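Input chain follows. Return structure tokens only.
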Amino acid sequence: MARPSLSVVQALRSTARRLEAATGLKAYQWGHMGSCNCGHLAQTVCHLDPAVIHQRALLTRHGDWDDQLNDYCPQSGLPLDDVIDQMLEAGFSRSDLAHLERLSSPTVRAALGSERANKLRHNHRADVVLYLRTWADQLEGELLATVPAVPDAVDAPPVVEVPVLTAARRELVTA
């Protein structure tokens, strides 16, 4: 699974928010390399327009994200491999991306519970949003588990009241 980091969690949550709010014909389109599950995450991570991602895919190889990930070569210099490079550098793995395209990560699905997970449709926008948020919640939990516990509070020094003379009322008050 992706390296638990604040930037990965933010990328997942940002993608979920944008995808949920998206409107129009090209807002979500599973068959479009820039507007599908991985395409939306690539938009967030790489700051690319969906049309640019799709064009890069067409210039690369045939197939969907799963095929592209199987054929990925970091030294190829192919346009979509550069996009994949950026996503890997951001903290995602090839396996993460393949699972995202099909909403198939066993860990994310287990967190959803079998009844809900069995109803996931990989090409349904609301299910992708749910998957992204669940994945972000998991990674955030892992990240928080690495934060050291705060030591028990020590006795705080007593509060000392200091007299203050206000100019307006010329009387003694405590701060």
